[in-house]
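Researcher: We're teaching a course module on how sequence relates to structure. For the next exercise, students receive a sequence and then see the predicted structure as tokens, so they can try to spot secondary structure elements on their own. Here is the exercise chain.
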Amino acid sequence: MNLRNLNCAAKNRRWKTAVLVLAAVFLWLLALGGCGQDSEAGGTSGSKKPSEPVELRFVCAGDVMVHKSQIASQYDSASGTYDYTDNFQYVKPYIEAADLALCNVETTFAGGQPTGYPCFNAPDELADALAWAGFDVGITSNNHMMDKGRAGMQRTLEVLRTAGLETAGSHGAEEPAYTIAEVKGVKVGIVAYTYETPRINGCRTINSQALSAESEAMINSFGYENLEGDLAEVAETVQAARDAGAEIVICYYHWGEEYQRSPNEWQQLIAKESAVTMGADIIFASHPHVLQGAELIEDEAAGRQIPVFYSMGNFISNQREETLQNRYTEQGMLAGVTLKYDPENGVELVDYDVLPTWVDKYFSGGKNVYAVVPLDGSMEQNGALTASGHLNRAKQALTDVTELIGADIIK
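Model: And here is the predicted structure for the students to work with:
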């Protein structure tokens, strides 16, 4: 989408004469009905603000990871290229149906030789596949964002934006720490932060890698050593997004303890602070690589409810029963929130829900095949499950997710 970079063509034209420009603008507005147009996933920076209440559907996926075996599985030796679209073919309709779809891109696009864990560097084609699947925003604030240094972090932004995705969580030196996407004429602010590892000689670190002053200024992170001060910085970013016109604010956090299926006290504290004090409307989160619960936080003073998804788990990875003896790492979700925006009365929660997902992996055609399977009513007919024979594993995953999340919000 690159909404922040889109400007009306008329604004970029140089004035030749006042009369000609006024005439051209008048005729152009008559023909197009205004400066810019709406789209299902964002619209342009010139979209007309709604005068009536409008419902907006948001979905977010957890960790998009590319381990070594996933690199080999998507390589086409005949063309020398990669193609990740088949990973997302079964969940694509759910993603495309959203007005704004986000995902955590837990890798870099640093160029050169692709690599897996521990220093992730995915082929650029993954970004194209995420856009093809319907994602609009790639979240880059996570503990692997600096795996290839500042140059890798910066190139990651370039690749995602070239593919057509907005980015949130890291930014250019002259760019704000928030992102604003325009959806059905409503400005949606996205504020994304990742946890830091303990400081080294006073320097902030990501995955124990010390950050230079230049890198530190280009990423969004918070540390538990200075949590109060860092949350004040997050609050400033949220307020800056509001000041820039955001009517809705989404917070994303990369937090929590790996492989723990319940949130810790820090996650709960930050979630409440973000919802009640900062005024966030939605909180999405990940990092533990397994699912954690979802709930509504009550903001009694404002008379509103804020949905928080403590961990959306792995959307796709090679973490699974066979590699970690942990079947919960195969399970993910598309976290969904429907909000009503009323120009007169602000934002109201309509609904929040979870579509459970499961990563299938099987051997076919001489290589591994990966597919994100929606755990919906079509499992019996799903092409991947039919080919793999893993229907019972998918059913077990649905049982696990339902027991953890609760049947009342399962889509």
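Model: If you want an answer key for the exercise: Residues 362 and 387 are 8 Å apart (CA to CA). Residues 1-45 have pLDDT under 50 and may be disordered.
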